[in-house]
Design brief:
heterodimer, A: mainly beta, 6-stranded mixed β-sheet, 4-stranded antiparallel β-sheet, 0% helix, B: mainly beta, 3-stranded antiparallel β-sheet, 55% strand
Chain lengths: 115, 114
């Protein structure tokens, strides 16, 4: 079975600063996808970034980037130039390719962006 | 804009009641999912369906059942609600069995069982 671990239950960052959220996972498979989802107080889950395991290049979406270390089974999210609107729960998630897209989630990191 | 709609944002039910949580998607997606979200536990898969009338158990199916009579609708059923089923329930949909990543989530139903 696959597992996803987020070891930081809560984090805080000042506006305009950079913060990194950690995620590790465990699988014996080689073909999979990794995701970071954001859940603001509105509760709507929003896809932040997606990484395909076969791609060595780290995914980037504007201020959001990942550090994907396949051998170490690590998938951290870096948020640059943090904004108040980044305040949310962040979930790391994993799915094996071709498994009807069943996602396995981590326990989440609550990020607070302060002035 | 594609949508997954959950019929209730908040729901309060009594212990022993039969509870229906409804989810409708307008995207013609094949796969639909029900997750439960609890603090410190993240999201856990209850049931999923990859076709009409098809269903598979997820990681925590005990106490729940599902129904998918039409492609666009996926219902989660609590046959006899208990207080330990008080939680946030999230519905999601993805295009197909082989699609890995096109998740669209509903905005959740917060269920309280008293």
């Amino acid at each position: 079975a696959q597992t996803v671990t987020q070891s930081q239950p809560e984090m805080s960052v000042q506006e305009a600063e950079t913060v990194t959220l950690s995620c590790t996972y465990d699988t014996s498979e080689s073909n999979y996808y990794l995701f970071w989802y954001k859940q603001p107080p509105s509760r709507q889950m929003i896809l932040v970034i997606r990484q395909e395991a076969y791609k060595q290049q780290n995914a980037t979406e504007n201020r959001f980037s990942v550090n994907f270390q396949k051998a170490a089974k690590s998938f951290s999210l870096k948020i640059s130039d943090s904004q108040l609107g980044d305040t949310a729960m962040y979930f790391c998630a994993f799915t094996l390719t071709g498994t009807a897209s069943k996602l396995t989630f981590g326990t989440g990191t609550r990020l607070q962006v302060t002035l | 804009d594609v949508k997954v709609t959950q019929s209730s944002r908040y729901l309060v039910k009594r212990t022993g009641e039969k509870v229906f949580l409804e989810c409708v998607q307008d995207m013609d997606h094949e796969n639909m999912f029900w997750y439960r979200q609890d603090p410190g536990l993240g999201l856990r898969l209850i049931y999923f369906s990859y076709d009409v009338k098809m269903k598979e158990k997820g990681d925590i199916p005990e106490g729940y059942s599902v129904s998918r009579e039409k492609k666009e609708r996926f219902s989660l059923i609590l046959e006899s609600a208990s207080t330990n089923q008080t939680s946030m329930y999230l519905c999601a949909a993805t295009p197909s069995f082989w699609d890995s990543g096109g998740y669209t989530f509903g905005s959740g139903t917060r269920l309280t069982v008293v």
